[in-house]
Specification:
The complex is a heterodimer of chains A (347) and B (263). In chain A, 78% of the residues lie in helices and 0% in strands. Chain A has 13 helices and no strands. Chain A is globular and about 60 Å long. Chain A has 347 residues and is mainly α. In chain A, helix 3 (59-94) packs antiparallel against helix 10 (246-268) and helix 5 (131-151) packs antiparallel against helix 10 (246-268). Chain B folds into two domains: 1-79 and 157-230, P-loop containing nucleotide triphosphate hydrolases (Rossmann fold); 87-156, no CATH class. Chain B is built from nine helices and twelve strands. A six-stranded mixed sheet of chain B has the order 6-7-8-3-9-10, with helices on both faces. In chain B, strands 2-1-4-5 form a four-stranded antiparallel sheet, covered by helices on one side. Chain B has a two-stranded antiparallel sheet with strand order 11-12. In chain B, helix 4 packs across helix 5 (141-154). The model of chain B has no long low-confidence stretch (mean pLDDT 90). The chains are: A mainly alpha (347), B alpha/beta (263). The A-B interface holds A 1-5, 7-9, 11, 91-92, 95-97, 225-226, 229-230, 232-238, 240-245, 283, 287-289, 291 and B 48, 51-53, 72-78, 80-82, 84, 87-94, 96-98, 101-102, 104-105, 107, 109, 113, 116-117, 119-121, 123-124, 129, 132-133, 136, 152, 155.
Chain lengths: 347, 263
């Protein structure tokens, strides 16, 4: 085999190894996170022994591990993976590094749905437990429907999608602000808490539901890897010359990433930073080849969300800082450091 | 000689602006055909219509005897490759991976050793082996141009469309790239041709087997360089006076531009 080809294979293997290492780190950290918390009844060592079957758990310990920590950790992993993957997909298909899963207005739609449930008491389901989740999901789906309608327009461009997303964000933001203006203090507090983005809310059933939804959607993302390489490298004309239909592909990818985002934020509330930063951090590890960038963003997003949430719930325990805040606090400076290092600032 | 491309009564408009008017021509195999014309004459539009980047208002395009309307973009990309004037990157990749995108129409998901070796060979062929693992966005304009040409060659098409491929190249690389294109197209084992929009008349005269002279959306001359590059044609299309030095046994036809014609 040609020496250049051999080097290419070698590079690919190194990148795949990095992704596998990230998988192992995430798994180890998840096990570690299961044992790390504010409960005096359950330290790290005891949790490890219970998890590996070396000790049996009492009722309280079992409840803490399987009803509190496990759903939270599962949701962190699945939610982080979904939001980071959605971010990578959207940045690639819109050819814009500033795009995140929230750019199209999916999250603003969810926020509007949540506000309807909290302030007006309007919900599409009778159950009060699910009112906010169901509304947030339904309203974000309305935004997805708008995206589908936009995609049917022949002359729609990447910029048009972004501009319409910004317009949707402003419109829904204005309606939410109006509702906030007339809301009671209790409603305001609930709405603000929802918008922080938290993993305290999802139950085990919720986390499993999101897990199955995201697991079903994720393989579809990989299907677009080659097309995204062509589109993100050279734009529409270049993509067409490699056999990609940019308009059709963009529409399909935006629907896929909007669904991934909707299903997560309906349960967690707004988590914005991860979908922007995790794909860029992953690019520093494996480059811009989407065949590796999608799996890497998926794993890195999961790790970042898990890490931020674990720190958030243990740093000032028993006070839990919402993961949306922690991601920005921890991820922001780290993101800036990596980008400045990559650009060689100061050298 | 089998026919690679046949264009019949091709029209294209941007609103009221008729960019292409009843363009008709054919390209046989193993030919380099140059399109000459001023800015806005419709050279790039013609290439984009053939590659389905733009939809013509009317007319027919046949590729190896088949109507291109019957091909989807993925099928078309196995038969036609396209080198745009420039490529602006949003997210860059290694040069090897950029050239590998030329194999995308032939691949499912997995890259075979054969595809990798074809990319490596193409990189060596265009003298790009030292750039293989450098980032595309860190190359100069000329180097990028050669990488995109390598991608088009790795695509292994019947027809290579090139939009001003030498515009960013230095003199030596202009000659090198056109020589390589001549070699690729002249290989009688392959049925392949190139249609190249170009501004440099002398490069076209030296390397093209045929020249299409495009003026205000119409093909006003189609033939060998000696037939097309006359002082009258050059004056009509480019608005300049020139002296044409005829082809000899040792030297190609040359055009010396003298002055702009006052209106």
């Amino acid at each position: 085999m040609d020496t250049i080809s051999e080097k290419h294979i070698q590079n690919s293997k190194s990148q795949i190894m990095m992704i596998l290492i990230l998988c192992v780190v995430t798994l180890l950290f998840a096990i570690f996170a299961m044992g790390w918390g504010s409960s005096s009844n359950l330290d790290l060592f005891t949790t490890m022994k219970i998890l590996f079957g070396m000790e049996s758990a009492d009722e309280l310990q079992s409840a803490i591990i399987w009803k509190l920590r496990f759903p939270r950790i599962l949701m962190a992993i699945v939610g982080g993976a979904a939001l980071a993957t959605a971010g990578a997909l959207m940045q690639g298909c819109l050819g814009n590094p500033l795009v995140s899963p929230l750019t199209l207005g999916v999250a603003s739609g969810a926020a509007l749905g949540a506000a309807f449930a909290i302030v007006l008491g309007f919900s599409i389901v009778a159950s009060s437990d699910l009112a906010i989740v169901a509304n947030a999901f339904l309203f974000s789906l309305i935004v997805v429907a708008i995206i589908i309608q936009l995609g049917n327009l022949r002359s729609i461009t990447a910029e048009s999608y972004i501009l319409v997303g910004i317009a949707i964000t402003f419109i829904t933001g204005a309606i939410v602000s109006t509702m906030q203006y007339f809301a009671t203090d209790a409603q305001l507090s609930q709405l603000a808490h929802w918008s922080f983005g938290s993993l305290s809310r999802p139950t085990l059933e919720n986390a499993l539901l999101v897990f199955f939804a995201v697991t079903g959607l994720m393989p579809l993302a990989l299907k677009y890897a080659w097309d995204l390489n062509a589109l993100s490298l050279g734009g529409d004309d270049f993509a067409i010359s490699t056999g990609v239909d940019p308009a059709s592909m963009r529409k399909q990818i935006l629907i896929l990433s909007a669904l991934m985002t909707s299903v997560v934020i309906a349960f967690t509330g707004l988590i914005g930073f991860l979908g922007l930063a995790a794909p860029h951090m992953s690019r520093l590890i494996v480059g811009n080849d989407y065949r590796k960038l999608i799996p890497c963003s998926c794993v890195f997003g999961a790790l970042l969300m898990l890490f931020a949430d674990t720190v958030g719930r243990t740093l000032f325990a028993p006070v839990v800082i919402p993961v949306g805040i922690m991601l920005s606090v921890i991820g922001g400076p780290f993101f800036m450091y990596l980008l400045l290092k990559e650009k060689g600032v100061g050298h | 000689m089998s026919e690679i491309l046949h264009v019949e009564n091709l029209n294209f408009s941007w609103g009221e602006n008729h960019v292409l008017k009843d363009a008709c021509f054919s390209i046989g195999s193993n030919q380099i055909v140059a399109i000459l014309g001023i800015n806005g004459a419709g050279k790039s539009t013609l290439l984009k219509c053939i590659n389905k980047i733009l939809n013509p208002s009317s007319g027919e395009i046949y590729l190896t005897g088949n109507d291109v309307k019957n091909y989807n973009l993925a099928q078309l990309a196995t038969k036609v490759s396209y080198v745009p004037q420039s490529v602006m990157t949003s997210f860059s990749m290694d040069v090897f991976d950029v050239v590998l995108l030329g194999r995308r129409p032939h691949l499912t998901w997995r890259i075979s050793d054969k595809d990798r070796d074809l990319v490596s060979e193409t990189l060596r062929y265009l003298g790009l082996e030292d750039f293989a693992f450098r980032r595309f966005d860190q190359l100069s304009g000329g180097e990028r141009q050669r990488v995109i040409i390598a991608k088009a060659i790795a695509q292994d098409p019947s027809l290579i469309l090139m939009d001003e491929p030498t515009s960013d190249l230095d003199l030596k690389n202009q000659i090198e790239v056109m020589k390589r294109m001549k070699e690729i197209v002249s290989d009688k084992d392959q049925s392949r041709s190139a249609l190249i929009a170009i501004h440099d008349i002398n490069i076209a005269a030296r390397y093209a087997d045929r020249i299409l002279l495009l003026h205000e959306g119409k093909i006003i001359a189609d033939g060998t360089p000696s037939d097309v590059l006359t002082e009258q044609n050059i004056a009509q299309v480019f608005g300049v006076t020139s002296s044409v030095i005829e082809k000899t046994k040792y030297k190609p036809l040359r055009v010396i531009i003298e002055d702009a014609i006052e209106n």
